[in-house]
Amino acid sequence: MKTDTFRMVAKTFQGLEDVLRDELIDLGAENVEIGNRMVSFEGDNSILYKANLCCRTALRILKPIVMFNAANTDELYDYLRDLDWEEFMSAKSTFSVDSTVYGDDFSHSKFVTYRVKDAIVDHFRDKDGERPSIRLEGADIQLNVHIAGDRVTVSLDSSGEPLYKRGYRVAQTDAPINEVLAAGIILKTGWRGHSDFLDPMCGSGTFLIEAALIAANINPGIYRENFAFEKWNDFDKDLFEEIYNDDSEEKDFNYKIFGGDIDPEAISVARKNIKSAHVEEMIDLSCQPLTEWQADTAEGIIITNPPYGERLRPMNLNNLYREIGSTLKNNFQGWHAWIIGYQDEQMKEIGLKPSVKIPLYNGNLECTLREYVMFDGAYSQFRAEGGSVASEAAEKRKAEGPRKVRHISDDDWKKESKRFNRDHGMKDKPHSHQKGRNERDDRNQKQRDFFKSREDRFEDLPSFNEDRRQFKPEKRQFKEDRGSFREDRGSFREARKPYKKEDRSFNRTSTYTPGNSKGPRISKDSETVVNPVHLRKRKNKPFNPGK
To answer: The whole model's pTM is what?
Structure first.
């Protein structure tokens, strides 16, 4: 926090790094570099706020505060205990720690979390006699610790809850697709609202809602009630309010988004989420099977996520994929279809030649996003007439070549961490305070012993099995007493007050309801929205989605 411009890291899913990079560049970020499931960049507080509010493919935005090398948890503790934590928090603050570790020297992320927590608490306790409190949710300061080998990066988490939690989802079906992944898939296709859009297996409506936000260029973060950076010491409320209320980049959508599902319950869930997002005027929903869909226009795009057979198990999965292929071929000439699938055997049942295959992860499943370009007649005749299944998006990816990921050597890392710490007013190697350290040795050793492997711990108990008393079920005497216990429960049930839903005093009308000129709206009689964190005002203009 020493300079106006600082380094940040945006986390994302593997395979979406290039999309996130483009988003950050469009926001005005500088020195943007792609990594593995992350993109690093530089900017000021304005870029930090915009990245949280506007990025569709970011999971969270981190602000590194210190970088150093540590060979073990003791060195980690010593370094962080001597850090000047007063710059970020006080003894009266609450904080949380989330750790991610890769390497042999740091094998337990929870133990790393405990050691970081101890270092911060001991820093304040030794200095002021007071200690900050731990809070798992809603802490004033949320820290992220990333350790790869012996490289340690400690960051402030500016987002709080992951950014895929947009705030519009009020219901869901089984196995809904992640909002960030859905938005990333749409952006990868190159669709920006220039044609009709269809998801014939929409489930809870995530693709439909994200498509509406993209088409109207509505910031996905406007639905959220808060961000973690709003509790920081340097939070600029006026600047954030200006960014939050800026709808100058929003635009009209001149086409239509269609969604459907064969399950009436899924349609009901999707309708609730669409209404919660206030984009129902942009989306048409219908309950009908896949085979009944027909193209109403010469061009359009289909993006869908059919069942994989992992959590959702249709009666005949192969037959479903054959129906997808026949429906696309017969009913959607001139359209482009993008399908994310898991098993190659299932995708082959579609019976069409994909123009491009993009590896993506859907949760823990290694999937593939495939594009199918629909044309009339046989493929050989289509090619003979000069046709190609390669889309503009595929040609662009081919021209860009393989994704470049920055890798730095150990020496370069040490130089970079020293320069980073110097530029941010951090000491390269904080001096070690001996005060209070001897008293903590026993406690630290107990913590290390606790996190020993299960096998090692049981090796310390060689006579465990021999010393156990033999269990004899015939000695248990509780059966006769259970009758009286059941009789006593009758009086407990009689004493309970009947639950009456109408007695609840919760008022849904007071919940956060953002407004927007081209998408999310507030009622005409309301011009101010009161947020639980602070007052936010949204402009109240008429909404004309089909203009």
So the answer is: 0.76
- The DSSP symbol for 85 reads G
Task: For residue 355, give the amino acid letter.
Answer: S
Burial of 175 by CB count in 10 Å (0-12 exposed, 13-18 middle, 19+ buried)? middle
- Show the CA angle centred on residue 252, arms to residues 250 and 256, nearest 5°: 125
- Determine the average pLDDT of the residues in 45-72: 96
Residue 516, number of CB atoms within 10 A of its CB:
22
CA dihedral over 75, 77, 80, 81, signed as positive or negative: negative
Residues 264 and 162 sit within 8 Å (Cβ to Cβ): no
Spell 277-307 as b/e; 16+ CB within 10 A means b.
Answer: bbbbebbebeeeebeebebeeeebbbbbbbb
pLDDT band at 406 (very low <50, low <70, confident <90, very high): low
Structure tokens at 545: 């989605």
Can you give the length of the chain in residues?
547
Closest among 217, 203, 358, 346 to 279, alpha carbons compared: 217
**Beta carbons within 10 angstroms of residue 318's beta carbon:** 14
- The better pLDDT of the pair 373, 476 is held by 373
Predicted local confidence at residue 317, as pLDDT: 87
H or E element that contains 244? helix 237-245
